[in-house]
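Checklist before submission:
- one chain only
- standard amino acids only
- sequence pasted in full

Submission:
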Amino acid sequence: MSTSLERREALKDNEILWYERMLEIREFEKRTNELFASGEIRGTTHLCVGQEALAVGLATVLEPEDVIAATYRSHGIALAFGLTSHSTMAEIMGKATGCAGGVGGSMHMCDKSIGLLPTSAIIGGGMPVAAGAALAFQIQNKPQVAVAFFGDAATNIGAFHESLNLAAIWKLPVVFVIDNNVYGEYSRINLTTPIEDLHLRAASYDMPSIKVDGMDIYAVQEAMTQAVDGARRGEGPTLVEAKTYRFSGHSRADQALYRPAGELEMWQKKDPILLTEQALTKKGLLSEAKILDMKAAMVEFIDQAINQARLDPEPGLEQMFENIYTAAKASNA
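Returned file contents:
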């Protein structure tokens, strides 16, 4: 089985693998929802069905040495950046083989080897973390970039202003990515925010901004390349707004009955997997038969990850007390 880093590096310049990774995320989310609904997994979860192109598009641009601080809607980002389906599912199931040893769960994915900082259950919590990582890169004169990945509602909190303001003043190598999926939990954006084009807020910080179709992986890759390259050259931060839509509700308990009639169906016509299939078929890289084969293989692949995780051991009670603190090293001064 490939390691997270091998999966991460394989994604570069391989359009078929981009599509396969998007299929993996879609099938993983579908099965995760079924496992929660059946009671096999406890607690709640937050799915990113319909937003696969943004996650994978981001992963095609960043280097493994770069870092990303993402949200609790984290399975797609984790898988896109290389975390294995087994490691991700084992974490959700609370198994010791999970990426956080089974003590983090659905909202706390992480893997240092691929630059995935621990995902945060705090709304907007990743923004100051990414800014801090970018400051560290700048101080150490390293050519690395940090990315903060957050939802549209997070642009209304104090951490958004503080992080963007600091990044702009110090020209930090950080990219702020708004996953504008129209809803902040259960509230539509027009009910909580006076503007719907959130990238316009970058002007307040004298920061460049980009608006991109987050359902189109090629558009995402182009926009993120521009923003990341600029940060790596020392030109400072960029605010990227990706227009997306989550086909599922906020959490597994949410049936999204508040959505206007026809809205979901309208966005499903822009399904990123469908758009990518069409693009790759036009290029001669996919056929209808190949698509069916890949989808069937992915169902089996996720089945194997789930079955393996079911057999894995659970963490012991003593692991609750690990990773809580570290002893300070004595100074040699």
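Reviewer check: Strands lie at 67-69, 146-151, 174-180, 183-184, 187-188, 209-213, 238-243.
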